[in-house]
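Hey L., structure's done. Input below.
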Amino acid sequence: MSRSIRLLVCAVLVCICGLALGADGTAQSAGTRVPILVYHRFSQTLDDSMTVRMSTFETQLRFLHEHGYHIVPLREVVDWLRDPNATLPEKPVAITVDDGHRSVFEKLLPIVLRERFPVTLFIYPSAISNASYALTWEQLRTLRQTGLMDIQSHTYWHPNFNVERRRRTPADFQQFVRTQLDKSRRRIESQTGAHADMLAWPFGIYDDELIALASDEGYIAAFTLDARKADRHARLLALPRFLMIDAYGARAFAHLLGEPNTLPMPAAGNAR
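Output:
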């Protein structure tokens, strides 16, 4: 190989390494994509379609650990999406839980404390300390005090925006949405001290009008149920998440994450 060709090869390799590594040396590239997982309820038994058994969840955590994934705070993913200079560790993944079910305190919390990984909770305040299935405000404050759980908005009472749009005038609908977004944020902040500026769209329903209203209300990021990984081309107020169900054992979970030689994904079913 001639000296000029060797120099050209070296230059190309340097460029590739420069693109692949962030300022702190962590793996970064223009093609980095982050799977954001969304759970709802946890139990020892398969109680309904949105329940993930603890044995399944433990299997998923073990898979992430064994395959070099790093569970990162959702806030860090959002910061990375907003800041071209921000970096993430190699093979990042974020965990979120919607609705504020009491199983977060009873089942998930012991594992979070044992494994020390971050979780973002999206709650709708109308249920908190009211519905029998829901967490209490005291429990949410305890969860936040661990330093591992962030508390964010799932609107005030989890409406179906498609239904509400059909039954209201355009002006009334916009006011309804603003109330859902504003009242939820205010209640979360007053009860827990968390800064609520992220939103999970109820039922995964969103459109351009809803995105504009969320932006007007001060939300910096919002999350859907679109089943794909997040990258820097994604809209900040329509970020995708994978809906987690109990059918995601090790092989199906591996396929979802894009690991090679795995079985196809199961059908996700109906989401809340």
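The chain has nine helices and ten strands. The longest helix spans residues 170-192.

-- N.
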